[in-house]
């Protein structure tokens, strides 16, 4: 197998090279349209001449993940996709769309950011926000799991996200900047320009004014999101394969989406995106990586095809036929995490997806019981002013970005979502791995489920799976 290759050429250079090659072989001159990116899944290993064939068909190779037979290519020819699908070595191909993070925006109806918490004094080692971390306290049994194990620096969690603030006082000792990478074209480093990835990383390994599940774990960034843009499937596939090749122990992916999978689903079920995810996850698991993913924030039943199709039709006007999947939440081999809240052991967070793919839950926070009641009565109602941000989860946030709108704190933020739930389970998996280096991903997943607190109906259920994950229980089992 060849190593993963990333080909990034400017559009000017690409067009020049393509024109020269075509003139030499006297290939037909194809029509021009909008420059579009395509994802291509080959049947087996990449053919030796795949790049030449793509160029002959009017495309330009952009990203190659040859370990799993996945390539992205760009073309301004509207017929390129039809031609590449006819290649005998191609299993599936489609237009490559982007995943976008679910960003909330401040609304005039809110007007209630948290302003009564003291700003961080970086020179005061005794100041901390530990009492505000209801989520970490609960799954560590009031931080008692830290007395047993805080993880160790040899155990690495790869965070496939927006990057990290490597200089954050709570993360700088645990964040591996040298080993981090970016997969976003046009960027040269894995620094976080968004905030999402730094918040996720803090839940895993923060060690300061806030604490993560494993304060001694190492976190490494695999950046697939820009400051505001989305992440293409090939970048995510490349990042997951690279993390596995780098020898990380756990990967956290707080990303995904209904709209993205709906648009990418092939007419005959041959989605290149689905193939890419299946292969990349399988590749990582075979290398001993535990892959943890968020369930998504659409309040939908992942186990109900009718519910999914109804949602796509109502929200996006898409009439999706046949079997459909949301990724990575419904990819075999991952640990899929739904979101619990602070105030109930029976009610899942209002936004969390649920259904038979859920393995376990973890605290992702919400807007409080009053908002929950109003939302369930009328999901389309106007009651943003009822949101209580204190019920969200507090974690690290880039010190160089303006405060997140839920508070005026610098370097910390209150957020909620299955994005905030998944990294708790990733942290739990990593602490387990640090104590049991020979454990396989399936064994780690089984221990997490076995030792979860039984929320909701007795036994496994479609909302909490096996229950809310708990690292203290796992360490004392």
From TrEMBL:
UniProt cross-references to Gene3D superfamilies, sorted A to Z: Peptidase S8/S53 domain (3.40.50.200)
GO molecular function: serine-type endopeptidase activity
Cleavable signal peptide: 1-23
Protein family according to the UniProt entry: Belongs to the peptidase S8 family.
Residue intervals of the Peptidase S8/S53 domain: 155-467
Keywords: Hydrolase, Protease, Serine protease, Signal
InterPro entries from the UniProt entry: Lanit_process, Peptidase_S8/S53_dom, Peptidase_S8/S53_dom_sf, Peptidase_S8_Asp-AS, Peptidase_S8_His-AS, Peptidase_S8_Ser-AS, Peptidase_S8_subtilisin-like, Peptidase_S8_subtilisin-rel
Domain of life: Bacteria
Catalytic-site annotation from UniProt: 161 (charge relay system), 196 (charge relay system), 419 (charge relay system)
UniProt record, GO biological process: proteolysis
Region feature Disordered, mapped onto this chain: 103-125
UniProt protein name: S8 family serine peptidase
Organism listed in the record: Brevibacillus composti
